[in-house]
Design brief:
single chain; 146 residues; mainly alpha; Four Helix Bundle (Hemerythrin (Met), subunit A)
C-alpha cells in the first residue's frame, strides 16, 4: 500500500521523514544565522581597528594590504553563509509545498543520504555531478545549487 502521507504532493518522503528533515534544516538555519552574526561582528571589529589605525601616523603598506585581504575574506564568507541561508529557507519552503526531495533537474528522488549530508540540496547527486562537470567544461547551466 502506498504511503498516504506522501500521496497528496510530489515529495517521495513521508510526513515523518519530512519532519526529520525540517528539524535538520531548522538546526542548520540557526547555526548559519549564528555564523553570519559572528562574521558581522568580525567585520565590525575589523572596521573599528581600521578606523583606529587610520587616525595614527604610521601606515605600513603590508599591514594595510593584510587588513584589506582579511576584510575581503570576511565579506566572502559572509556572502556564502547568506547564500546558504537562502538555500535552507528554500528547502523549508519545498517541504511546505510538497516538493522536498525531488531533483529540480530531472524530477527524480534525491537520495536520503544526500539530503542528510546536504539537507538543502536541490538536485540528485547524479544531476549535481553533471552540473559540476558542465561548469568545469565551461558550459551553460553553472548555477550554484547544491
Amino acid at each position: 500500500m502506498p504511503d498516504q502521507s506522501a500521496s497528496s504532493n510530489n515529495t517521495p518522503y513521508s510526513e515523518e521523514d519530512l519532519e526529520y528533515f525540517r528539524k535538520l534544516l531548522l538546526n542548520e538555519q540557526a547555526e548559519t544565522r549564528d555564523e553570519i552574526e559572528e562574521l558581522k561582528q568580525s567585520l565590525e571589529n575589523q572596521n573599528s581597528m581600521e578606523d583606529e589605525r587610520a587616525s595614527s601616523q604610521h601606515h605600513h603598506a603590508g599591514n594595510v594590504g593584510s587588513e584589506e585581504q582579511e576584510k575581503e575574506r570576511l565579506y566572502l564568507m559572509n556572502e556564502r553563509k547568506r547564500e546558504k541561508l537562502e538555500e535552507i529557507n528554500a528547502a523549508l519552503s519545498r517541504i511546505d509545498n510538497g516538493t522536498y526531495g525531488v531533483c529540480e533537474a530531472s524530477g527524480d528522488r534525491i537520495d536520503r543520504e544526500r539530503l542528510e549530508a546536504v539537507p538543502y540540496a536541490r538536485k540528485s547527486i547524479t544531476d549535481e555531478k553533471k552540473r559540476a562537470q558542465n561548469a568545469r567544461n565551461g558550459n551553460a547551466g553553472s548555477d550554484s545549487d547544491a
